[in-house]
Amino acid sequence: MSSSFRSTASSSSSFCSSSSSSDYSRTKLLKKNRHPKKQRRRNDDVRASSSSSAFDEQLKLEWFNFGPRGTMLPQTFQQQQKSGGFLSTSGPLHVSTPLIYSQPLSERNERKTYIKMDNCQPSGSFKLRGLGYACQKALLLDGKKTFVSSSGGNAGLAVAYSGSKLGAKTTVVVPETTPEFIRDRLESYEAKVIVHGKQWSEANELAEKIVAEEDAFFAHPFEGEDTWTGHATLVHEMCAQLRDAGETVPPSFICTCVGGGGLLLGIAQGLREVGWAKTDVVVSETVGCDSLYQSVQKNELVTLPAITSVAKSLGAAQVSPSAFDLTKQWKREGKSPRIHSTTVTDDQAIDACKNFANHHRALVEPACGACLALSYEGKIREMQNDMNTNGCVVVEVCGGAITDLSSFM
Questions:
Q1: pLDDT tier at 60 (50, 70, 90 boundaries)?
Q2: Confidence (pLDDT) at 385
Q3: From CA 214, how far away is CA 229, in angstroms rounded?
Q4: Which of 196, 218, 240 lies at the terminal end of a domain, its last residue?
Q5: Which residues span the domain enclosing 103?
Q6: Quick one: which H or E segment has residue 394?
Q7: 120, 122, 128, 133 alpha-carbon torsion, rounded to 10°
Q8: What is the per-residue pLDDT for 94?
Q9: What is the DSSP letter of 382?
Q10: Do residue 294 and residue 195 come from a single domain?
């Protein structure tokens, strides 16, 4: 046990609750490793059960046991059985990503700042957390052997990757604006790519028709409780990693970007699950795809007439109604987390990407730059008086799949 963990173990109950990647989960995981044959029998018994809810809970339990300190962490894709050529897994398709202290961002924020590197996910973004979980459930519980997605961005890549690992047939409908290198990447996961429409809404309409015709699972880019549950693993990992880093109080801010709102909803769920009631979430959009910001300003759901920002992967014409409602819960009910919605310009987002590449040797997309710009442009520093705790800042580095080096040349 590390000295940093020993120093904070006595206060762990106040730092994060037992529903996170805690000693309880780690102990169960170690016991599973000591008796692999018994564990396989238990898994077989659960799958044979007629109760889908019981299996759902077992899947979720085993999923969360793959925490950053779990001994099975490197085995992110555990084959449990083969049935009709399709693989069943109880472990997650995503990996536990690094949480790294950032000196450059700490200096700009005037507060200790960590970066959560979800750009290191196999599919290139955080989307694999939620959509991987949703696809696993669709296959294991509902027997869906075909997945359909309507995203030409990170969500489509996450679904295509999930299909390739689960042995499922995958179709991704993308709008005409989807870059050729993204289409090629989708096809590399053996996904069928259909180009349809000038914008996402048109591609989505065709995807929904295909779902009905093929009795497939529709992997929506940002809606769905299973997707949000998968995204919540971000906070569970963060909780254990910060504690191991010697932090004794929860973060003051978690900074992220928002497009459709799935990541925001997942983070909020994770905060409730680990008991971080005083941690605020700062969400950023670029001007031109700022549906949440405009909705908050007008206190009603706003549908953008067009997406005019370079941050195309934030380009939802209307944010999820659930995400919009989440921003109002603090004022209406005093229900945490408190959400701070803000915007940056395209130029600020792109500059943030370049600065981040110089400082941390990682290339991320402008959508991610929208979040990083909060630190590089001094917005987090300006919000110091709004912080509820004396904790650190965590910046979610959401992804880098929808970019390449030529984009910044």
A1: low
A2: 83
A3: 26
A4: 218
A5: 1-126+228-409
A6: strand 393-397
A7: -130
A8: 97
A9: H
A10: no
